Amino acid sequence: MERYRRLSREAVAGLPGRSVVYDRERLDVWGAAPGEARPVFVFLHGGYWMALSRHESAFMARSLSDQGVATVVPDYTLAPAATLEEIVRQVRASIAWIHREGRAHGLDPGRIVVGGSSAGGHLTGMLMVDGWQREFGVPDDAVKAAMPFSGLFDIRPITRTYVNDTIGLDLARAAALSPALLPAGRRFPAVVVVAEHDGPGFAEQSRRFRAHWGPAADLMVVPDRDHFDVVLDLAAPGSAVSRALVRLIRSV
């Protein structure tokens, strides 16, 4: 966790940035300035929905800025202060904020790519599925591409773990909040990333979600990485993960 925070501090040092309020929460915008219209990568942090923040989650901002891409890192209210339904609602509201207000901050609302790690991968999946956009006043294609890392896409097993002592799900709610069980009619490009040394459950969930998403998705297994460090490859411009993200962004 300290490495996430240190690399994030180093990445944003000297970058143009601002913190803004959206839906009573905050998000940081890095690597863009008013008058620009940069494509935007929205990164959703992990921590089993109950830890971490935007302050540990901007480690890719400099490498993306060097490629002409802005980074947006939203906070969301952590459990147990918020239900998982409310956390999902907040991250969807962050996309609505970018779509509505982003141009004034140098962001192109027509080129939004989302990603996140672990629980943030789950939240990424909840931005990929159909059916939520109308409530937030955004078009069905507001999100153009996605890169979830080591995501939780069927969260019903969470009901049998210590995490549920904080999250408090039952099976019906868990199913309703599982991207792998929800409609995926508009399948846009996605790269589903998992580490070679990830836990077997995370690896299996990633394989199944790639299959659920269909031929629009690729599965990327990153060698010599584990659940916690695979996402840090986004901070290394020459890494396969970083190159894949830039290709994904440029494809939209």
What does this structure look like?
It comes from Actinomadura syzygii. The protein is α/β, with parallel strands linked by helices and 252 residues long. The chain has a single domain, classed as 3-Layer(aba) Sandwich (Rossmann fold), CATH 3.40.50. The protein is built from 8 helices and 8 strands; from the N terminus they run H-E-E-E-H-E-H-E-H-E-H-H-E-H-E-H. Strands 1-2-4-3-5-6-7-8 form an 8-stranded mixed β-sheet, with helices on both faces. The longest helix is centred in the middle third of the chain and has 18 residues, at 84-101. The radius of gyration is 16 Å and the shape is globular.
Blueprint of the fold:
Layout: H1 2-12, E1 17-22, E2 25-30, E3 38-44, H2 61-65, E4 70-74, H3 84-101, E5 107-117, H4 119-128, E6 143-149, H5 164-167, H6 171-176, E7 190-197, H7 200-213, E8 217-226, H8 240-250
Parallel strand pairs: 3-4, 3-5, 5-6, 6-7, 7-8
Antiparallel strand pairs: 1-2, 2-4
Uncertain spans: none
Percent of residues in beta strands?
A: 15-25%
How far apart, in Å, are the first and last alpha carbons? 32 Å
CATH class term = Alpha Beta
Determine the number of helices (DSSP H or I, runs of at least 4 residues): 8
How big is the Rg?
16 Å
Specify the helix fraction band.
Answer: 25-40%
Please provide the ordered H/E string of secondary-structure elements: HEEEHEHEHEHHEHEH
Task: Give, in spatial order, the strands making up the sheet with the most strands.
Answer: 1-2-4-3-5-6-7-8
Which shape, going by the Cα principal axes? Answer: globular
Q: Architecture, CATH level 2?
A: 3-Layer(aba) Sandwich
Query: Which structural class fits the helix and strand makeup?
Result: alpha/beta
How would a crystallographer describe the biggest sheet?
Answer: 8 strands, mixed
CATH topology: Rossmann fold
